[in-house]
């Protein structure tokens, strides 16, 4: 008999919303097939029967996810995401050396579905406007070894696979990315090195300005 999954330990819990720290490798919502029914939303509903999904992280991405408690709160939080009133910050380890500076840089490249290779996405001038801010924190370089950079990311739009495709488009795929990285990039990490490290919003009921953080565990030292 399969043991039940461990209980979720919320980062934040109140009568209106939850903030959870999703592990890498866990779906946010059920997939197709019996083997893909275990997911963050199913686990949450076992503990909080009124828990409803608001947004998603890719299965390989770890980090912060907010869930609504009840349909009215789901509508309010969904509107906050749609209207870009939610602060989202990610961390990633990417291939190659990105320039280190204090200012944020912008990737402004439209994205669309790559229909022959679904669920992949691709850059395309005819795609939907897509914006990502990035700032490199540190890079690692060793003789004979490929370089890597620890980077902060802030998606200003919410396209599918946006961070992964935008980084690939500037020549810096995320290490461990089984969808967009080549074999060498995939082999350099046991998982996708992408983590949702900060989430902030104004609470729809209390009007508190809330911000949560989750350490990525990623680190690179300057040479």
What does this structure look like?
The chain has 223 residues and is α+β, with helices and mostly antiparallel strands. The chain has one domain: 2-Layer Sandwich (Pseudouridine synthase). 15% of the residues lie in helices and 31% in strands. It has four helices and twelve strands. The longest helix is centred in the middle third of the chain and has 12 residues. The protein is globular, with a radius of gyration of 18 Å. The mean pLDDT is 93.
Task: Give descriptors for this structure.
223 residues; alpha+beta; Pseudouridine synthase; two-stranded antiparallel ribbon; 4 helices; 12 strands; 15% helix
- Structure classification: alpha+beta
The overall strand count is 12
User: With helices defined by DSSP (H or I, 4 residues minimum), what is the helix count?
Assistant: 4
Low-pLDDT regions:
none
Helix content: 10-25%
Counted up, domains total 1
Mean pLDDT: 93
Q: SSE order in H/E notation?
A: EEHEEHEEEEEEHHEE
The span between the termini is 50 Å
Give the CATH level 1 class.
Alpha Beta
Percent of residues in beta strands: 25-35%
CATH topology: Pseudouridine synthase
Specify Rg, calculated over alpha carbons: 18 Å
Largest sheet, in brief, is: 10 strands, mixed
Q: Which of globular, elongated, flat, extended, rod-shaped describes the shape? A: globular
CATH architecture: 2-Layer Sandwich
